[in-house]
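It would be a great kindness if you could assist me with a short task in structural biology. The full record is reproduced below for your convenience:
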Amino acid sequence: MKRNRLLTLLLPLLLLPAACQTAEMEETIADQDRQLEIARQERSRLEAERNRVRAQTAELRDQLAQAEAANRELSQRLSAMEAAQRAADAEVEDLRARLEGSGVNVSRRGEVIVLELPSAITFPSGSATLNDQGRKSLKQVAGILASDYAGKTFWIEGHTDNDPIKKSKWGSNLRLSIERAMAVADFLGKDLGIDPSALRVAGYGEWAPKVPNDSAENKAANRRVEILVLD
């Protein structure tokens, strides 16, 4: 009887270390589970960050590829523009050489070739009748128009200075500019074989000067007929 009572008293004491060990083990396991969960969360965060960086890198690569393609296109366009400009400059220089001594000035206005005949070599003062030098110069011009610009349209523009009409029969500078342009068009079409359907005529009078009409030299520059070669 006494022995059984003693065992009953000792049994909890014998089981206490095991219970303590079990609690410690469970706490250890729980702590490891928490650390594992933290590690899993950190891994998930890192994977998400890695995927974000990969996506951003891919987007940047696409943007870089697009920028490089755009840069190549711009470089090609620039090269083409530079080549076209060189060709245009060469065309003007060639025309100047071929018209040297004719008194005709050659320039380019955008895509348009401009052949300028100053009135000093084409018309007497206040007149719309071509003089000998004007006819000679236009013969040289007509040869180039027929050989180099067949099929083009030729816009013939008359211009004057701003001095009022006083002695001639013309009622205004505008009328004089139109008649001078018509005289050039008629000579090109009727006498020099340029297709009349390719000719257009306009007169601007004093309203489109090259330079201000503030000196005799500038006024002389403004008195002109221009032949514009159009596509």
